[in-house]
Amino acid sequence: MKTYEIESFLKSFLIFFVLLEVLLAINFWHDYQVKKREIEEKIQIEMKLCAYTVQCEGLRTDFVDKDKNKEKNILYKDGDFYSYFSVPTVKKYLMKVVYPQQKYLDRLHRLEERLQGKFLLYSLFAALVSLLFSIYALMPLHRALRLNEEFVKDILHDFNTPLSSMKINLKLFKREIGENPKIERLENNIESIMSLQNNLQTFLRGALTQAERFDIRSVIDDRIAYFKVLYPNIHFHVELKSLMIKTNKDAFTRIVDNLLSNAGKYNKESGQVLVSLDDMLLSIEDTGKGIERPSKVFERYYKEQDRGIGIGLHIVKKLCDEMHIGIRIKSKVHKGTKVILNLSRVV
User: Fold this and answer.
1) Does residue 26 carry a pLDDT above 60?
2) How would you classify the pairing of strands 60-65 and 281-286?
3) What is the pLDDT of residue 208?
4) Statement: the pTM of the whole predicted model exceeds 0.85
5) C-alpha to C-alpha distance for 319 and 313, rounded to whole angstroms
6) Could you give the CA distance from residue 40 to residue 71 in angstroms, rounded to a whole number?
7) Quick check: 163 pLDDT over 80?
8) DSSP assignments along 201-262, one per residue
9) Contact at 8 Å (CB) between 282 and 167?
10) Fold type of domain 209-342
11) I need a surface site. Which of 119, 214, 284, 337 has the fewest CB within 10 A?
């Protein structure tokens, strides 16, 4: 299951399970109160039997003066339970029957243990029902997502033939007429389309796992050369030394491409892009529009501009997580954005 599918599943499960647990808790609380009253009624019956049959096992008895404040056959609670009963042959006194508090608490404890056991059993059943419900509810969504992914994969695959044909024909055309800035721009536009294609493939497939050692300086220089042609009005500066890292080169290049593309695309006229390396921290800083809500930029489909579809930085974060590269963003609106990659775990 994909991350967003697991997230949807867990949210559905938790919502349904919590709802069932709340209903169970209300029901068991009501049941507890009812059974608690039943225990008190049974206590009063036991006290009456004690008064009339003198079978008072576990109870204490005493005789007290009759008083208008001492109502008969009423259950009192003051620590212990007690009640007053009339004595048939004696009118001056009342019989006081006392039910010890500890005995009452023991009965309540046994009741609570029984109800807790039942509640646990019912909770396990509620968890099973929630699990089955969540799976059943997400099955149509899962099938729709699979169909959508297969459709996108087919479209991306179908792109390969015309793109390859265009690249071959441009190379042949360049051989006939020589170097030409228009042909170079066409080649860069085709590379942009292929970059978007690779982004979508990465979004569907995830990061490649095969690692290799390479120098990040060569990757940065190569991609800077590409983006200088694509954004001729943006000034790119590189301040970094050679650094060998071990990770998947294609995935790392995809990260750099997305970050440099954003730095060029959302920069101001004649803006600056600085790529620098400080110890193990690779920074890509621009003088562009900035980001209003940097904490949300890694969310899928989130964007603050009309351009793009909002998956570029989501893919960057996904690749960084899978490649164990730390990433954080600092940004100020109208001043620029700085993206910092922590390469300490891949050196």
Assistant:
1) yes
2) unpaired
3) 57
4) no
5) 10
6) 18
7) no
8) HHHHH------EEEEHHHHHHHHHHHHHHH-TTSEEEEE----EEEE-HHHHHHHHHHHHHH
9) no
10) Heat Shock Protein 90 (3.30.565)
11) 214
